[in-house]
Amino acid sequence: MKTHRHLCCHACDELVTIKLPEKEGRYRCPTCGHTLFKNYKNSIEKSYAISIASLILFIVANYFPILTFSVIGQNSTATFMTAIEYLYRDGDYIMAIAVLMTTIVVPFTFILFAMIVFGMLYHGKIYPIIIPMLRIIEDLRPWGMLDVFLIGVLVSVVKLVKMGTIHFGISFWAFVSLVPLMAYAHMILDPHKVWEIIEDAGMCLYQKEHK
Ligand SMILES: [Zn+2]
After folding, report:
1. Cβ 71 vs Cβ 165: under 8 Å
2. Ligand 1 centroid to 17 CA: how many Å?
3. At what angle do helices 191-200 and 106-123 cross, to 10 degrees?
4. Distance 109 CA to ligand 1 centre (A)
5. In the chain, N or C: fewer CB atoms in 10 Å?
6. pLDDT digits (tens, 9 = 90+) for 115-128
7. 118 CA distance to ligand 1 centroid (A)?
């Protein structure tokens, strides 16, 4: 049984020895203070639960109307896709694709892959597909911009409130709950922990590169 683990600091290249089992909390490089990794209790279980909840909220947020706007007896309903449709109709194709990617495609792929990855880890059934999936999750992380979209929605709401009556749909509340949930998921998730479990499961991380 291993008693120590060695890690290389990404900031200063110092080789750090970590005593096993790892304690809960944040590990920092003794030389430069850079965060090496975070070790939260039950992070896999929490991440799995959050990814399931996020998927449900994401489907609700996209399926139902986000808000209904009433002005002089006229009602108009908006969904997540409405903004993309308008941009596309106006000829802003690049913008429409960018909004579609950052608010629907990337968050959906991220949540779905996270659910599969954490599902495998939680149930102890790790298949080789976990490696490319985890890499995709790490690459997608900076491209999900639901929080930016939420700010955009809130700014529009503030402007529209002066012009008519706004009724928030179930999708709005699902969306508002989803953003902090995903922020919490990002906070507790540490890829280091996940890679460690995969490594302990006997999977060579660099199989392909070494062939
Ligand atoms: Zn360092």
Report:
1. yes
2. 12
3. 40
4. 33
5. N
6. 999 999 999 888 88
7. 29
